Fold each of these.
Amino acid sequence: MTALLTLPIALPLGAAALSVVVGRWRVAQRVIGLVTLTALLGTSIALLVLVDRDGAEATQAGGWSAPFGITLVADRLAAVMLVVSMVMLLAVLVYAIGQGGEERRHVGFHPVYLALTAGVSAAFLTGDLFNLFVSFEVMLTSSYVLLTLGGRRDQVRSGMTYVVISLVASALFLTALAFVYAATGTVNLADLAVKFTDLPVGVRQALGLLLLVVFGIKAAVFPLFFWLPDSYPTAPTAITAVFAALLTKVGFYAIVRTQTVLLPPDDRPQTLLLAIAGATMLVGVLGAIAQNDIKRILSFLIVSGIGYMVMGLGLFTVAGVAGAVFFIIHHVIVMTALFLTGGLLEQRTGTGHLDRLGGLIRTAPALALAFLVAGLNLAGVPPLPGFVAKFALVDAGIDGGWWAVVAVSLLVSLLTLFSMTKIWTGAFWGDVEPAVDLHRPVPLAMLAPTTSLVALSLALTLFAGPLYGLAERAATDLLDASTYVQTVLGS
Amino acid sequence: MTIVLAAAAASLFGCGTYLLLQRQLTRILIGLALLAHGANLLIVLSAGGRGEPTFIGTGDADGFLDPLPQAFVLTAIVITFGVTGFLLALAYRSWVLTHDDEVQDDLEDRLVARRTEAEDVADARAAAAGAAEPKSDSEFEPEASR
């Protein structure tokens, strides 16, 4: 069990070091990357099965007991997130290898990608606020490098915005840590959950809000999302897919963790979160409608998707949080599929600008179909899993009597469908413009992960029942922090 | 002592925020460093007041200083150092590419600016055409490169 908890962090770090050593041989680096991520996928699936069967598991690094040592915890949510991230990281790595580009030109790509993986796993598994900070930094520093690899002018410009915003968020995180430590004398999440109940209500809520701002920047919720649509699209497609689908979700995971474990039920900022959720959904989708470039449209749609997750969390009911967990699973996979499909389009035609595309359905019908399926899935057209996720959220919202946010979420679904049709009609319908389809070769290594992700996003429908059950169990664990506390502190 | 450190942290945060709002990259960088220093100082403060050094001091158990925040600060300093180094490299790259230290507007802002400019030109043209003595169009030509 201990091995399963430490492997997702130790393995990619070791592999990253090895990858630096064999930097001269790109093939060796590729083998290391693929083998490591496949092994991690297996490990995280094993962890999910075990955790789902036996309940949450914790391990103490170096045998120091809980509030003093470094704690790693895997509960159902962490395990689910881990499996989903490994699936997408593996798919994107295959895609990046197929695409070449920065992956082929730079020694640094593979080691940094593995370090990013380690950071993501550590963020999911850590049971300690300070280690959460460290894992975020590992993840973000890797992402700075991946974003600016190549050093082109627009990359440097947008990379700068991204790095500065992230650093401001990190400084705020440190400030929040200082306040939390000054108030309680501990940074262990389980220990904090116990000690927070003794704090005055005002202090408790202020700390909760400060952490919400910190992770809100990383998760790109309204009004802290402005940096995302500008910085993500300049990276190579594969990297954008990782950032878009994964990094914001890690931020959201941290929001879920801190808002549920630390704050007792009465202090949770329900109305605030639901207001943020509505605004995030709406602003994201309106931004998407105004754009004309595929990657930028998709980047705005991520912001909109984050809104749905925040809505599920903000309800603070089992049904709501379960809906949010299911939505994350669906959103990570479908968003990656969309970005990768958009990347294929760019690879083939050399542009992602809708004004310059058109009529591609005649020359690339398979691509059109893949995009259509993934797009309808994102918008939530039944019977696709996007519909299941949104239905769960809307149902939970109606149960709670939060009509306004339910209405907004339904409207946003419609607008999402509209922005998807905009891409589809812009790129695939209309007259064939002869210059558009360059018929550039698309390598199999790019096609395979894209189609597998589209297929996987469809398969989620078939397994929606068991997956929703899992999401419900994860939500039950989350809302009652006592299981988490017991697992870590052991009493 | 605590009040002095707290005041120092506050002024670091203040100066850092001010510098962060400037347009020159070097100033933003220094601002970020100051902000991080302020946060680090705050963490040191979170250990409480003065106390005996932890591992080498002697005396009563209550008199010792909590060493954990210092470990936090060490980690945070290392991370900030690394990232600041990266940002410096990025700033240098930006200078090599553009010979300019100023942070550029984002793509969207520039597009909006260009659009309103084009609209202004169109309005001015329409106004000029409607006037009794139409002016020469060349005055209202949009800038060729922006």
Amino acid sequence: MVTQGLGDVGGDGRAPVNALAAGIVTGGGPLPAAATADLLRRAAEWRQAEAHGREVVSVGFPTLERLLPAGGLRRGSLVEWLAGGDAAGAVSLACAVACRLADPRSPGRGAAPRMSGETSRETLRETSRHASSQAATIVVVDRGQRFYPPAVMPWLESEEMAAHGGRRPQLVVARPSRDDDEIWAVDQALRCPGVAVVLAWPGRVHPTAMRRWQLAARSSGAVGLLVRGLSGRLSACEPTWADTRVAVAPVVERDAVVDPAVRRLRLVLAGGAWSGSDMLVDRSVEVLLDTVHGREAVCRRPLPSHQGPRPATGAASGPMVGPMVGPMADSWTKGAACRAS
Amino acid sequence: MSRIMTIWLPRWPVQRRLLERPELRRRPVFVCRRERRGVMTVVAWAWAVPPRAPMAASRRSAVPRIPAGMSLAEAMAVLSLTYGSRGCHVAEVDHDDPAADRAALEELARSCRRFAPLVAIEAAASPHEGPECLHIDVTGTSGFFGGEHTLVRTAVWTLAARGIHARAAIADTPAAAWAAAHHTDSLQAADPRGRAAGRHRRVAVVPPGGQIPSLAGLPAAALRLDAAVTAQLQDVGIETIGGVARLPRKSLASRFSPQLLQRLAEFTGERAEPLVVPCSGELPTAAETFDFPLLLRDTLLDDLIAVIERLLQACVAPLAAEGKGVMALQVRLERGASVEALVEGREACAPAVIDIGVFQPTASARHLAELVRLRMARMRLPREIEGIVVEVVSAGAAECRQRTLFGEATGASASQVAMLMDRLAGRLGRGAVFEPKPVADAQPEHAWAAVPPMARAVRSRARPVRDQRPIWATARSAAHQRPIWLLPMPLRLEAVSVVDAVDATAGPPVRFRLTAASASRIDSDRWAGIGTQPHDVVRAHGPERIETAWWRGPTVRRDYYVVETSSGNRYWIFRRLRGGAAGRAEGEWFVHGVFC
């Protein structure tokens, strides 16, 4: 768990730190604890210096924000979503996050730059008043030509936005037919300052291309959401240039009263540019995705405890308490019940 | 002897609207004119992708006959006889706009200068009929394209690549070419390669001096005669051009309208017919001719782009002074004679043409040069060029913003997004970049349409229509959730365990997997979203019955379920139904979507 995502490569000073850290954790070469702590502290300082001046935006999922190191996503960052199965829900979650990031009423859009994610929620709400009324653009680079826009288009028309008279975010789909076109299209979209979010599900990406994406996102402030591992070729141990890498796995619900419009996903922070102290902590949360509205669902009773180990820290613990509610909560039928009838 | 190529664009007012709004291709489109007393008459109509007509005996008889001038009420009645009342409900009725039709035709005429420098628009026969033809003087230029047959086919397929249906013919005179282009189906000529003329033949070439022998069998109306003159000819038993040509000319002048003699003289070439070159709103052109042929092998692409950018700046500057920007332009790389052309006896080759189109008018020469660079990097350039011609094909009002001292002006990001769309479309193709728009159709495959991006302003100016949003776009319940990925074709499933295969109320299967045929259709390189292993269904939600209307052709009846497997994956599967209201199932299951 701890070694995942530590194989960062590159020449900007991060590779030696990660290599040392990987050696420590995996037992390759023991170092004094003081030297380790010093290295990790310096790495955290370097990354904070790199993130200086980049605004933190809300992803619209409070549970997910508790998982992210900065309490949100910084503008100009790349996020990798590792799919834990064929239909695990990683693309759905990434699409929902993209819609929330592009929402002109979302906290953080158009606000003044902030330094860290420790700012209180009240500040985020305050900044939402200054959000730009201009519609943001979501660019979906659909390499496999299987993206179905009707699944996402209702998510862009939230009731809050209609109440405030905001413009619906613009959804643009680009369908490259070749791998190099896909890489080029993602790069171009990330470089455009008018684009809020770029969503893609690339296959194999050379680290050089991903480094270009990172620099492109830094230059424009767009957030890149990359769903990877759909073909089963990528492991969490592979190096990445993404700032955050989140593994997404579905949680099997055998409770028939659960709302069918709610999907329960387990998220594990599996890599990326986190701070050194966080590397020794198992950070995982469970998110309830409302597949009808594209936002986090509300629940009222404690969830059953069969979903795996609980996170070690309080910040990473799940907030779900209470039964899931919804109009179709009682319409789910179990297969066994169907056979019996 | 001159040679004229006529390009006929049937039902041009409708075609223009389909080019601007491709989502109308699945609906009947009527372009009407308001006459006296408020009567609406049909100018042109078309249904680009019509459904199967359930009331027609054959596909050929399914096309309703609605001539121009018929009242809209009568046209709707004729349409409903063939397609039912639903066809009238979904029909798009638009008012006639001759000025916009002519402006679009002039843009097309400018882009057709790739075939020859002199491109004219046909003179309208009457004030109520707009022009639908382009006359191009191809005298001496057909050799650049490998002959007249190759040229006329190139012209038709170049327009077809832009979604324009056209028919073309080459003859000695504009009148003869006009007649041949309007009756390419009935011409019996075969091309030099020996292929016989098909029923849907779109091109024709009349040999030099052979308009009378070749076109003698065409109806007399092909001489562009008025209806009254045609009726006069039919009264005396003359129905073809050959019959008119055999009459003595002296008697023609005394017995018939002078128009007949004039049209016949223009047809045979005894009287010259002037070509009307569109002169209204001439758009800028810039050219650069090199002293010596430029070998592109020894030239850097950056140097070539620098020259093109200078020409683009020369074209953009006068437009920007008028507050306009470029919507489409053409870059032609004039080629010299290649070795192959010299062997074949040709003097030169056709220019290499780069068509550039943008979604919003732009006055940025750098942005246009970047689009040209993207296209040139992916095309096969000629070995050497003798000159470069940049011609603006279409222009529009550009958005002007006041510059600010600090920060960016409002709307700057929108223009940057528009430039991004242009770049993406320039490399990926114009159809590969789009915005989705909901469509009121029950079948999931047709529940959305791709529209060109940055077209919101155009759509908002359209007349308001009644809300036809599909139920998934308005309903906020779990019953109408849609998968993130939709498979191009539903994959057949093998239901391993099910209660009753023929009982439609039995619910979804408890275990399924792809059939061998479906598994073989999965592309090994790209992930399909579903594996070939068996899937145990833990929970299911549904059914959501989807049924298409009878007027759309074969009825599609499906019961969709959202199933969750034991591994936590969610799929959108359906059972195909057939039969009456009882809903007897066929027992065939398909997976259609993945909640990935």
